Predict the structure.
Amino acid sequence: MSICVQPVELPDGDRTWTVLGADHRQVGPVEEFLEYHRVTGSSPHTVRGYAKALQLWWRYLELDGRDWAGADVSALAGFVTWLRQGTPPGVALLDPAAAAPPRLAESTLATRLAAVVSFYRYHHDAHGVAPALARAWSGPPRRSRYRAFLAHLDGRSRAGRRSRCRCGPGGGRPARC
């Protein structure tokens, strides 16, 4: 295809990634975003993941005939559909049940989507571009089976449940326990 992720060897020997367009030049807005992450100390794996996600986003925008700065939430929804089903923009399946199985795991899809939204948040903060996409997605709800260290202080903890203290002789309860 016309958009690709290219590894780059830095002068200090480190390796990073960039996204090249159809003209074999760096895609300016993507490179600016990736450079921001390099400078702020993001992991090279994070930079590579963002580069891959943005390569896919650029490919989708190319297929859809959209400019990156003019993309909206409907473009993001189309991107998710494209990643899930492989159906190009503007193509409707006559029998959705006969569609190919998902191309990506939901966790991978969520990572790609988070990278695109992060890209737009950066460009919205830096240049005021695409405010709708800058706040389009906040990620899957996070639920943890662990309680925070100071959760008992938040007022929502279970009051009234006390542990039994068997400190006195015969298991009796001392005055202060």
